[in-house]
């Protein structure tokens, strides 16, 4: 089967954004901004890059994704549901009593590899998966604020030292964290040079551009797995993809704003947000 058309990926991403808004309109709300910035990244990985089978979520030959920024769980849930890991209708149960769809991902949810959300642990967990089986690809999706945790850089040193060429870290570089701009908290720049200094190969892309993401993540792409199908890069270096994104992407009222970090939308706010998303979808799909 060939790669999905861009229009198909875009349609899926639109549906995922609507799911995110729906879950933020639930009883507990959700991490709106950092989930919206992840949509294209996770859509490309689950629909166009990773070797997975929703009918066999625990298949031994599957690729692995660990969501280090576990507060992006509602984006992950939307993508997993669209991919067929569980029914889309279950998203309506998010954060309700007895639901397995919690504020941070847990392994009770099909497709979730590890519980995450205590920031700084995702890359080390992905290291373990990558070391255990070098014939599969492993991805750690990290928040940029998460990079202020020292454990990330301990894990990064280990990734390079162990020659984990089958490991890719994708950094959601939306430049905002709960308290404001990342650079006002603990500066991360020059971020690409930092990853290189730890022995990683680095790529920078527009994190909302499907083609650009596929160009650095798909098997056989530059900086991804080898064209011969082997998961590991020939030089043994792990790959860091710095994906430049916009927090709250898709909703102009909260795009690139700190207040988008967490939202509990009223019924009216959720309806208005859905209307904005659907109008944008119609514009993009117009001939």
Helical coverage, percent range: 25-40%
Count the helices. How many? 10
Runs in which pLDDT lies below 50 for 5 or more consecutive residues are 225-230
Give the overall shape, derived from the CA principal axes: globular
| Number of distinct beta strands | 7
| Mean pLDDT reading | 94
Write the element-wise H/E pattern from the N-terminal end onward: HHHEHHEHEEEHHEHEH
Rg on CA atoms, Å: 18 Å
Major β-sheet annotation = 5 strands, parallel
Percentage of residues in strands: 5-15%
The largest sheet has its strands arranged as 1-2-3-7-6
Structural class: alpha/beta
**N- to C-terminal separation?**
26 Å
Task: Please characterize this protein's 3D structure.
With 287 residues, this protein is an alpha/beta fold. The chain has helices at 6-24, 32-36, 39-49, 73-83, 122-132, 150-161, 182-185, 191-197, 210-217, 267-285; strands spanning 64-67, 138-143, 167-173, 176-177, 180-181, 201-206, 239-244. Strands 1-2-3-7-6 form a 5-stranded parallel sheet, sandwiched between helices. A two-stranded antiparallel sheet has the order 4-5. Helix 5 (122-132) packs parallel to helix 6. The longest helix has 19 residues, at 6-24. It is globular and about 50 Å long. The two termini are 26 Å apart. Residues 225-230 have low confidence and may be disordered.
Characteristics of this structure?
single chain; 287 residues; alpha/beta; five-stranded parallel sheet; two-stranded antiparallel sheet; 10 helices; 37% helix
């Amino acid at each position: 089967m060939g790669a999905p058309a861009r229009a198909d990926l875009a349609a899926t991403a639109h549906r995922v954004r609507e799911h995110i808004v729906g879950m933020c309109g639930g009883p507990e709300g959700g991490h709106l901004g950092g989930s919206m910035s992840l949509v294209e990244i996770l859509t490309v990985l689950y629909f166009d890059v990773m070797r997975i089978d929703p009918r066999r979520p625990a298949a031994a030959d599957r690729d692995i994704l660990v969501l280090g920024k576990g507060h992006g769980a509602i984006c992950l849930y939307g993508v997993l549901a669209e991919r067929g890991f569980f029914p889309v209708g279950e998203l309506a149960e998010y954060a309700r009593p007895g639901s397995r769809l919690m504020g941070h991902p847990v392994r009770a949810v099909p497709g979730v590899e590890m519980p995450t959300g205590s920031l700084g642990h995702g890359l080390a967990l992905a290291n373990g998966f990558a070391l255990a089986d070098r014939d599969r690809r492993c991805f750690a999706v990290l928040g940029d604020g998460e990079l202020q945790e020292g454990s990330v850089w301990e894990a990064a040193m280990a990734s390079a030292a162990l020659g984990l060429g089958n490991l890719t870290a994708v950094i959601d570089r939306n430049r905002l964290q709960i308290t404001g701009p990342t650079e006002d908290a603990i500066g991360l720049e020059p971020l690409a040079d930092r990853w290189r200094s730890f022995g990683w190969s680095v790529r920078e892309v527009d994190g909302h551009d499907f083609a650009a993401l596929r160009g650095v993540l798909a098997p056989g792409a530059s900086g991804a797995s080898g064209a011969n199908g082997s998961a590991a890069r020939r030089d043994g270096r792990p790959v860091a993809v710095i994906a430049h994104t916009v927090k709250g992407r898709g909703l102009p009222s909260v795009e690139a704003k700190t207040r988008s970090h967490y939202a509990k939308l009223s019924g009216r706010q959720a309806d208005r947000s859905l209307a904005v998303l659907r109008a944008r979808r119609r514009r993009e799909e117009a001939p």
